[in-house]
Amino acid sequence: MNNLISNENIEKLIYEIRGIQVMLDSDLADLYECVNGTKTINQAVNRHLDRFPSDFYFQLTKTEFGNLQSQIGTANLNTMTRTLPYVFTEQGVAMLATVLRTKVASQMSISIMRAFVSMRHYISSNLIEQKYINNMVIEHDDKMKILQKSFSATRRTIYS
Known about the structure:
By secondary structure, the protein is α+β, with helices and mostly antiparallel strands. It has helices at residues 7-11, 25-31, 38-47, 62-72, 75-78, 90-100, 103-159; strands at 14-17, 20-24, 57-59, 86-89. It has a four-stranded antiparallel β-sheet with strand order 1-2-4-3. Helix 2 packs across helix 3 (38-47) and helix 6 (90-100) runs antiparallel to helix 7 (103-159).
């Protein structure tokens, strides 16, 4: 297993597609050090289709693939012209590690799971912070409306 792969580097390989955090089959093939690349992953999935329901993995549409290419612009995606790539959800990544049954896959899946958890914590903390900011804005907006009404009432009293 490549010891240079950090949690932060793995997090950069997690994308949001269809509102779900996923990883590309080609990135997983690299991380799991699959000699035959995505072919190894596709064979493992095809041998165990019953373990990969649609919420564990799915194939990108042409539009999703185009959006992903423009988003990350890697040469790796540009060379994939024959078929659209598959992406794996967190559960799909965990299941993939079990069907690949290699030491690298087992060790790497632990790192990948930690990266998914880290991403969830990051998103969650940002949502909490955003909610706090939204509440402050609403509170201040309410106070501004009260002040405006007060000024309007004072102005009417002075000019009447």
